[in-house]
Amino acid sequence: MEFASYFSSIAGNAELGLMHALSPINLFYCAVGVTVGTLLGALPGLGTFIAMALLFPITFHLTPTTGMIMLAGIYYGTSYGGSICSILLNVPGEAKSALACIDGYPMAKLGRAGVALSMTGVSSFIGGSIGILLMMLFAPLISQWALNFGPAAFFALMVLGLVISSSAASDSPMAGYAMVALGIALGLVGTDLESNVQRYTFGILNIWDGFGITALAVGLFGVTEMIATMRTQQQGTIDRSTVTLRALIPSWDDFRRTVFSGLRGGAIGATTGSIPGTGGLIAAFVSYAVEKKVAKDPSRFGNGAIEGVTGPESANNAADQAAFIPTLTLGIPGTPALALLLGVLLIHGLAPGPNLINEKPDMFWGLVMSFWIGNIMLLILNIPLVGLWVRILLIPPHIFFPAVLFFIALGAYSVNTSAFDVGEVIFFGLIGYGLRLIDMPLAPLVLGFILGPPLEVQFRRTLTFGGGDFSAFVTQPLAASLLALSTVIVVFSVWSAMRSHGKLIPTEETPT
Amino acid sequence: MTANQQRQLVRGAAFLAFGVFFTGYALLKLDIGTPRNMGAGMFPFVVGTTIVLFGLGFAVPTLLELSAGRTPKGEPGRWETIEWRGIATVVASLAAFTALVGPFGMIPATLAMTAVAAIGNHKLTPLTVVALSTAFVVATYVIFVLGLNLPLVMWDWPY
Predict the structure, then answer these.
(1) Could you tell me which of A120, A102, A113 has the C-alpha nearest to residue A41?
(2) Contact present, A5 and A351 (Cβ < 8 Å)
(3) pLDDT tens profile A21-57
(4) pLDDT at A511
(5) For residues A53 and A221, is the Cβ–Cβ distance under 8 A?
(6) From first to last of its 159 residues, what are the pLDDT tens digits of chain B?
(7) What are phi and psi of A459, to 5 degrees?
(8) With left for phi above 0 and alpha for psi between -120 and 50, is residue A69 left, alpha or beta?
(9) Is A408 touching B (CB cutoff 8 A)?
C-alpha cells in the first residue's frame, strides 16, 4: 500500500470521526464519562472496572457509538482520577496508580502536591496522545490484516488473548485461567443460538437469554466491593493549602522533566499496552525503572522526584489508550475492563472484530476522535478544577456507601425495569464475595463471560469446516503458532508459580 | 495445614463441584453430537472438563503435600475476615429495593433501601437517610426519566 494514500485515508477518516465526536450528544456523554471517571477514580477503592460497571446500564439507552464514547471516557478518566488519590492520600485509587504514591506522596509532604497534580495531568495527556496516535496509525492496518483470518485463527487468537490477560490478573496464574473457564461456563447459560436448545436455565424464563452482563459486572465488582469495604472505609486528611491554583504552577525545571519523562513513558506504554492483557501496571513499572536509570541522581527517587510520578502516569495512560487497538481491531479486549466496552457492541447486536472498522467507520473513528476530546476535557478537569476533586475526597465515605448501593440497584433495574435483574445482582455479588474470600481474581471471569459465546462459534466453525477433524485447529500456521504460544505461556506460568511457591516441586530441601 | 493450603483445598473443592455439575448437565441433558456435527452440549462438555481439571490442579498438589507431611515454604498466608455485617447489610438493602420497586415504585424502594443500609452502617443518621433518598430520587428522575426517557414508576399503590 502506498504510504501517501494510507495517510490521506486516515486523515479523511479522522475528519469524519471528529464530526461525529463533536455532535452535541456525543460531546455531552463524553463529558459525563470523563467526569464520572475522574470522580470514581479519585475515590479510593473504586477502580476502573467498578466505575464502568456502574454506568454500563445507561449504555442500553444510547446508540452504541455514544455508549462506547461514554464508557471509554470513564475508562481513561479513572486513571487521571486515580493519581489524585495516590498523590494526596498515599492510597492508590487502583493498582496501576500505585506507582504514583512512591514519589507523589513525598512531593505532597514537601508541599508540592499542586505541582505533582498539574504535571501528572500534563504527562497523562502526553501519554494518552501517543497512545491515540499509535492507534490511528495502526488500527486500520491490523484490522485489514485480520480480515482474512479463518475461524481457527480467530479461535486461537481469542485463546491467546484470554491466556495473556488472565495470567497477569493475579499472582497465581492458574487462578486466573480457572476464572476465565468459569466465566465461559456462565456465558453459555441460556438459549443455544445454533440449535435453540435451553442450556442450564432450569426453566427460569428470565435467563433464557443468558445472564445479563450488567447484573454480572455490577454484582461481581460493585456488590463485592461494597461488602468488603463497608466496615473499613476511612476518611483521609488533606492539607488544602497545597493545592491552590497558585501551587499548581510548575517551575521551568519541573515542566522540562515532565515533558521528557512523559515522552519516554508514553513510548513505553504505547508499545506494551497494545499487547492484549498487559495493561497499564506493567507499563508504569517499566517506566519507573527507566526514569530511575536515566536520571543523573537516582537517589532522588522515592523522595519526591517528579519524573517518578510523571513517567509512570504517562506510560499508564498510553497503555490504556493503546489497549483499544486489539479491542477494536480484533475483538480481543486489551484489558479486562475493555471487555465491558465490547459488551456495549454485543448488547446492540454488533459483532466485535476486524469488520468493525470497515462496516462502521463512523463508529470507530467517532470513538477514536472522542479520545482527543475526552483527554482535552480531562486536562481542564484536572488542572484548573483539581480543587473540586480534593473537596470530594473530603466527603465522608459513609455517604458514598448508600449512594453506590443505590446506583447498583437502579442501574440493574433500569435495563429492563425488571426486579429480577436486581436479584441477579445479589446472586452475583454473593458469588463474587465468595470467590474473593478464596482469593480468586474477578476480572478474568468477565473476560471469559464476554468472549465465551464467540469462542464457541469459532470452535464450532473450525470443526465443521475441518470435517470434524480436531487437527483443523493446527493445520494453518497462524492458528497453530498462536495456540502453541498460548500453551507455552500456560505451562510456563503455572510451572514457575508452583516452583516459586515450592508447592508441587520442592526445589531444594532445607535441612532442619 | 496453613491458610494457603486450606485456600487451595477450598478452591479445588469449589471448582471440582461446579465442573462436575456443568459437565454432568452437558452429558445428561444436552446433545453432545459428533465433532463434524456438534450438538449443544459439545462446547459445554469441553469447558466443564477444563474446570474439573482446574479443580484437580488446585487440590491435588496440596493433598500430596499434606499426605507427604511437607510444609510449603514461604508465607503461610491468612484468611480475610468474613464481613458478615457487610453481607447482611448489602443483601438486605438490595433485597428491600427488589421487593418494593415493582409494586410500590421508585420512591418507597429507594427510601427503604437507604434505611436498611443505615441499620447496618450506623454512621448514617435518620436525617442523612432522608436527605440522601431525596437526592437519589431527584437524580433518578432527572437522569433516567427526563434525560433517558425511561418509564420508571416513581410512586404506585397496587391495592
Answers:
(1) A120
(2) no
(3) 899 999 999 999 999 999 888 877 677 888 898 888 8
(4) 38
(5) yes
(6) 788 889 999 999 999 999 999 999 999 988 888 887 888 888 999 999 999 999 999 999 889 888 887 777 667 778 888 889 889 999 999 999 999 988 898 899 999 999 998 888 777 888 888 999 999 999 888 888 888 888 788 887 777
(7) -60, -45
(8) alpha
(9) yes
Q: How far is Cα A138 from Cα A142, in angstroms, rounded to an integer?
A: 6
Give the pLDDT of residue A233. Answer: 65
Q: For residue B146, give every residue at least 6 positions away whose Cβ sits within 8 Å of its Cβ, in sequence order, or none.
A: none
Q: Cα(A161)–Cα(A480) distance, rounded to whole angstroms?
A: 15
Size of interface A-B (CB pairs under 8 A): 189
CA–CA min distance A437, chain B (Å): 6
Q: Cβ contacts (< 8 Å) between B7 and chain A: which residues?
A: 438-439
DSSP secondary structure string for all residues of chain B = --HHHHHHHHHHHHHHHHHHHHHHHHHHHS--B-SSSB-TTHHHHHHHHHHHHHHHHHHHHHHHHHHHTPPPSS----PPPP-HHHHHHHHHHHHHHHHHHHHH-HHHHHHHHHHHHHHHSTT--HHHHHHHHHHHHHHHIIIIIIIS-----------
Please check whether residue B109 is in contact with residue A253, taking contact to mean a CB–CB distance below 8 angstroms: no
Residues 38-57 of B with CB under 8 A from A: 38-44, 46-48, 50-51, 54-55, 57
Whether complex ipTM tops 0.85? yes
Q: Distance between CA atoms of A144 and A146, rounded to whole angstroms?
A: 5
In eight-state DSSP terms, residue A361 is H
- Within 8 A of A228 by CB-CB distance, chain B residues are 80, 83, 86
B residues 92-131 closer than 8 Å to A (CB):
93-95, 97-99, 101-102, 109-110, 113-114, 117-118, 120-121, 123-124, 128-129
pTM for the model stands at: 0.86
Query: Does A504 sit within 8 Å of B61, measured CB to CB?
Result: yes
Q: What is the largest CA-CA distance in chain B?
A: 67
Please give the average per-residue pLDDT across A314-333, as a whole number: 90
Out of A61, A228, A469, closest to residue B148 by CB:
A61
- The closest of A157, A134, A133, A130 to A145, measured between CA atoms, is A157
The answer for B 134-153 residues in CB contact with A (under 8 A) is 136, 140, 143-144, 148-152
End-to-end CA distance of chain B: 58
Inter-chain CB proximity B40 and A197 less than 8 Å: yes
Q: Which residues of A266-281 are buried (b: 16+ CB within 10 A; e: fewer)?
A: bbbbbbbbbbbbbbbb
CB distance A199–B30 less than 8 Å?
Answer: yes
Q: Which residues of B touch A440 (CB under 8 A)?
A: 11
B chain contacts of residue A197, beta-carbon cutoff 8 Å: 30-31, 40
Give the three-state DSSP class for A80. Answer: helix
Eight-class DSSP state of A351: P
Residues 6 or more apart whose Cβ sits within 8 Å of residue A1: none
Backbone angles phi, psi at A259, to 5 degrees: -65, -45
